[in-house]
Amino acid sequence: MPWRLLRFGLSKKHPEPRMFDAPDALKPSYDVVIIGGGGHGLACAYYLARDFGITNVCVLEKGYIGGGNTGRNTTIIRSNYLTPEGAQFYDKSLELWQDLSTEFDLNLFYSNRGHFTLAHTDAAMRTSRWRAEVNKHYGIDSEVVGPEFVKKHAPMINLQCGHHPIMGALYHAPGSVARHDAVAWGYGRGANMRGVEIHQRTEVLGIDTKGGKVCGVKTSKGYIETTKVLSATAGSTPRILKMLDIDTPIFIHPLQAMVSEPLKPWLDTILVSGSLHIYISQSSRGELVMGASLDPYEVHSTRSTLDFPEGLSAQMLDMFPFLSEVKVMRQWAGMADMTPDFAPIMGKTRIDGFYLDAGWGTYGFKATPVSGKTMAYTIANDKPHELITAFSSERFKNYELTGEKGAASVGH
Ligand SMILES: Cc1cc2nc3c(=O)[nH]c(=O)nc-3n(C[C@H](O)[C@H](O)[C@H](O)COP(=O)(O)OP(=O)(O)OC[C@H]3O[C@@H](n4cnc5c(N)ncnc54)[C@H](O)[C@@H]3O)c2cc1C
């Protein structure tokens, strides 16, 4: 090991600026406490400070920022959802993504690729047409295309796909990918520069209420007084809600993904097949980023399993037989917080001062900017932003579901 590197590692003085300050201790009170230093919690902190001047805020993260689903996802960004509420919400996010690298002065490797949802059955073609019509109505670039168009954009594809020939696809030109952990760092640094404190390795252990209102938070590093708490904890949401005796329809399933060894660039687009339950894109490093649908069992674990790469590879080879010699480099899992209608739960709760941003399942990375912005508005004004009223938890009581399953399952 070079002497200079060793000396640097052992020294307490690091001349490079850190991404954000790491304060030694918590303050006794904050105006807003955000639980969860994933993209959503950090984005909310950023917009609270930037748009509303609310800076006496802390983000509490039990691990390290971006170490949850934010740093485990496969980074598909798109807005071609099925419901009017979903399509408009995700389209606002797509708009916000465009300026983020400049705004943060940090390269998020936002890369516009185009996104195909492949259809192998008449039913899938029908859903594609339905989505295209809803999307066009809201000005979202989305169209149904034939197999030749797919082949033109992905020349290596086997259109026969084993026994599931590709009949067509829903094509969404704005579909993109980005570097996930840089998104957490960008929002974290931006929030911190405006006065927000970020406390890593700080776990929330309890939330206190008095007269139906939030009054404080117990953490592994001491007690904080506050009147406003946001939970943005994705796969840990049921545990947080249990602290307040709030029932939730959220159930947790593992969601796995894997990457191959790096290859020369050959796939310039994002391909998703709902019928084969797989999707693939190629990262800027050349790795093939691949995933499938949720594991079929409910369990709070980020353990990977062998049947995942086996099943995924079998389907992937039907689509791209030439990949048979390519090695899988690593696999991992996240805990996806699923709701019955595949739409998030956002906004106020029955406890005054307790706000929820959850139910992001397999599709919440793309929503990071818009969820941060709308939750910041909701907390600052104590009233839900108009873009999220369809995502209130009340919808389960009132049977007013926002059914996104046709657009949000394996497609992310
Ligand atoms: C394999 C996989 C692939 C995916 N692919 C896509 C995709 O292509 N496109 C897409 O849009 N979405 C995708 N998603 C979904 C997306 O990753 C998530 O919806 C999104 O990242 C959620 O962000 P978050 O900030 O809410 O949660 P997280 O990033 O999980 O952050 C929550 C944080 O809360 C912290 N926390 C929990 N409990 C406590 C506590 N008690 N105290 C303090 N901190 C706590 C956790 O440590 C964690 O860091 C995928 C997910 C997975 C797992």
Describe the protein's topology.
Elements: H1 3-10, E1 32-35, H2 39-52, E2 57-60, H3 84-97, H4 100-104, E3 111-112, E4 115-119, H5 122-137, E5 143-145, H6 147-153, E6 168-172, E7 176-177, H7 180-193, E8 197-199, E9 204-210, E10 213-219, E11 222-225, E12 229-231, H8 237-243, E13 251-260, E14 270-273, E15 278-282, E16 288-292, H9 307-319, E17 328-338, E18 345-348, E19 354-358, H10 368-381, H11 394-397, H12 405-408
Parallel strand pairs: 1-2, 1-12, 2-8, 4-14, 12-19
Antiparallel strand pairs: 3-7, 4-6, 5-6, 9-10, 10-11, 13-16, 13-17, 14-15, 15-16, 18-19
Helix pairs in contact: 2-7, 2-10, 3-10
The structure holds flavin-adenine dinucleotide.
Share of residues in helices:
25-40%
CATH superfamily descriptor of the largest domain:
FAD/NAD(P)-binding domain
Bound molecules: flavin-adenine dinucleotide
User: How confident is the prediction overall: mean pLDDT?
Assistant: 95
Beta-strand percentage range: 15-25%
Oligomeric state of the chains present here:
single chain
Number of helices: 12
Give a short account of the largest sheet: 8 strands, mixed
Side-by-side strand order of the widest sheet: 5-6-4-14-15-16-13-17
Number of strands: 19
**Helix/strand structural class:** alpha/beta
What is the terminal-to-terminal distance?
Answer: 43 Å
CATH topology of the largest domain: FAD/NAD(P)-binding domain
How many distinct domains?
Answer: 2
